[in-house]
Every structure is written in structure tokens, then in C-alpha cells.
Amino acid sequence: MSILHVHKIQTGKVWVAANAENFYTYNMQVYTGKTDGPREKNKGLQIVKGMVCQTYGTRTGVTADNFLTSCELAYLSLTRNMTLVGTLRENKSEIPALFLSGKQKEVSSSIFGFSNDLTWVSHVPARNKAVILHSSQHHDDICMGEEKDHKSVIFMHNVIKSVFDVLDQLVREWTCMRSTTCWCSKLFSSFTDVAGVNSFVLWMLK
Questions:
Q1: Whether 86 contacts 66, CB under 8 Å
Q2: Residue 109: how many CA atoms within 13 Å on its side-chain side?
Q3: Quick one: which H or E segment has residue 52?
Q4: Eight-state DSSP code of residue 53
Q5: Sheet of 110-115: strands edge to edge?
Q6: For a Cys-Cys bond, which of 3, 75, 97, 120 suits 20, CB 3.0-4.6 Å?
Q7: Number of other residues whose CB lies within 10 A of the CB of residue 84
Q8: Which residues on adjacent β-strands are paired with residue 8?
């Protein structure tokens, strides 16, 4: 199963959906900021729908950060024959209180919950800190740590996040962007940077 990760590149103005195996960018969407009128609801859901709609029905896995991830998105992915793995912000009302705080919990410990085809995980990576994840791909309580647990939800999310740290590093290292206050110039440079990385990926894969 191929995996797409949706995130913002370093400029903070462009959403990117890229392949987790080779860094190839499949889709980009400009973040235009807040618009006039009523407050937009489920913004993260709308962003991801627009970014991955070409892959509906392909059994593709999607990973995303806590701005984009939601229960609505997870259920939508299942109806489109896709899966979702992502972190959740602690202000989500659907998160059980037991999952929120990392206080008095052992470092590297995890709590699992299962509900309606979703797996919930509260992982404590450091003292007094809890990371909330949920997944429509995983359906067990395998924990991260040993080599045999490489399919766990925590391991998968961390590996893919590090993959896209590499993508950001490639864009940053070979950027054509110059110091400017012109937003259009920054946007054009972002497109050019990603096109350059895509060209390199295609050259390596040929």
C-alpha cells in the first residue's frame, strides 16, 4: 500500500501531498489564509479531500498532522477505500479524558482504545507529555519499540514524519528563494523548489 503524507512545506504557504517512499510530490494547494464571511468549519477535512481526491479507491494510506486530522476525515477515508493515520489536537471533544494528560504516566507507555473501526493511542514520549494519535489502518495494541513491531501506529507515524523532514531539508538546501517581501515571488520559488525535487526523484527512479 502506498502512503501519502499531507503537510505544509517550509514557507508555510503551500500544502503538499507527497509519496512517503520517494518524496515525489503529487499535489500542491496554496494556503490563502482566512476569508471574509462565516468562519470555515472542518478546514482540515476540506484541505485533505482536495489533496488526495485523485487517489480515491486505490487503498492508499494518508498521514497528516494535528491540524488536518479528525474523526470525520478518518471515516471519510474508509468510505473511499483509504486509511488515515495522524495526530490529534488535545482540544478535540471526542478524545477521552484518560488519553489527554501525560502526568503520572510512565515515559514510553501507551494507552489504546478501539471504537467504530478507529484505533486511538495516547503515547507518552517524555515526562508530562502525551501525544494523541488515531488510525483507521491499525486495529491492535502493538506498541513501538521492538523490531517486530514495525507496523505499529506510533512507529509508522514517526517514520513518515521523519521522511518529510527530509523533504523539507531537500527543499531548503537547494532552494532558489531569495529574500523578498513579495508573496508572489515566494510562492513561485516554492513551486520551483518542489519541481526541482520531483525532477531529482524521477531521475533517481529511471
A1: yes
A2: 12
A3: helix 43-52
A4: G
A5: 25-30, 14-19, 3-8, 61-64, 83-88, 129-135, 118-126, 110-115
A6: 3
A7: 26
A8: 15
